[in-house]
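SEQUENCE-TO-STRUCTURE ENTRY
===========================

Subject: a protein chain together with a token-level encoding of how that chain folds.

Sequence line: the amino acid chain in single-letter code, read from start to end.

Question of interest: how does this chain fold, as expressed in backbone structure tokens?
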Amino acid sequence: MFRRPSQKQQLVQRVVVSTLAMLAIIIGVTLTVLFILGYRLDSGSGRLEQGALLQFDSSPNGADVLTDNVPTGLRTGSKQTVIAGEHTFTYRKDRYNDWSRTIDVNAGTLTWLDYARLVPKDLPVEAVQNYASLVGAKASPDRKAYIIQEKEDSPVFSLVNLRSENVTSTSITLPDNIYDSNTDNPDMAHEFMLRRWDEGSRYVLLTHHIGSQVEWIVVDTRNVAESKNLTKQLGVQVKDVQFAGTDGRSFYALMGDGAIRKLDLGNQTISRALVTDVESFIFSHTTKVLSYVGSDIDDATRRVVGIYRDGDASSYVLRSVAKETPLAIATGLYHGNDYIAIAEGGAVLVLRGAYPRSVDDVANLTEYSTISLDSPISWLSFSEDGDFLVVKGDVTFVGYEVEHKRSTIAPIASKADFHWLDKAYVWDDSDGTLKMRDFDGANVSKIMDVATGFDATLSQNGRFFYAIGKEDGGYRLQRVKMILD
């Protein structure tokens, strides 16, 4: 016969049930937190170990993901937690070459492997425009256009539209009132040379050489009649000019005396000397910082690298070395921190902190990392997002991950200049072959045979890879399909 529990028994039951429920909640929350923090049970040792989280993605996506050559059942984009240590991650997709990377991941970290570009196994080359001759080809930063120059003595250019699969072009002619046509001496040779696009992909800087005179001209590709002759309008002779903005009016210019000044076409003004004794400079539109290599104004036997920001009272020298020592400098911005890489001979010093606002603030930049190469450095550059640094020497290539302080060293035989293809890839055209590779030198892919010295670019959607090819009797703008139907 059923007998109702006593009050004492009921109380004990409630305490036991409540305790078990509380323990279940605590265990559940603890396991959830441990899972979020990347802890997993190592089947080999039976121990609970904190892992590393990997985020996978690729272009095109939907590639199978293998970890240490074992299928995971995952596809890009997805994520996976692995036990800390060295692992090889592979992306595999039908009709594409495998992409792989081996890295040593630390516990509790997140690594983004989301930049991979899968390369088709078959890359037939298609000609989209043909030219009898060609002396210049510059791709716009937004990947929507090429400006093509067929003859060096003619101010006529082709503007190629890459926005759609059906490539079209229009002809633009620089009005003769923009440049010195020298009608008094019609036999004098003219030479026009494309220099660079602005970051807004509307304006193009070119130089016009006539006799010993050099003119810098700003071409408005949307309204060529509004093009400006910077040399004539401001009455200056300069060695180099770089856009300081995207309005086609403001510039940084290296003058004949080695001073850098800011030029404003809109207000018809020339600034004071912002930096003096400069050999070369680069203005970064990402960091808004001008970095330069020059002579030490206090010691003619030494060279310096430094930086300048618009509005600062003065520039800031960051390094002074013996005059014969090769020097280079690059700036980057990553997760709110300023980074500066200084190459001195075959060594690179990476600084992190905040760009100085006064002489005393230089101390806010502290040593973050060092990188060594076996030869002098010929190319040094941060990626657009500042997360990768590429260092190229004569025989060695180093890719550096800013967040994880990971360096990958790869041998390289290319003497050609390197260029960023996108946020994680670089390209070069050594030996007449267009090649692309990851920022760390891995996954080198031969794309197509090309004429050297001209720009290559992906289309804006990454579907096509464009470059200039050479053929009997002329040149052609050609492409391969990178994302298959």
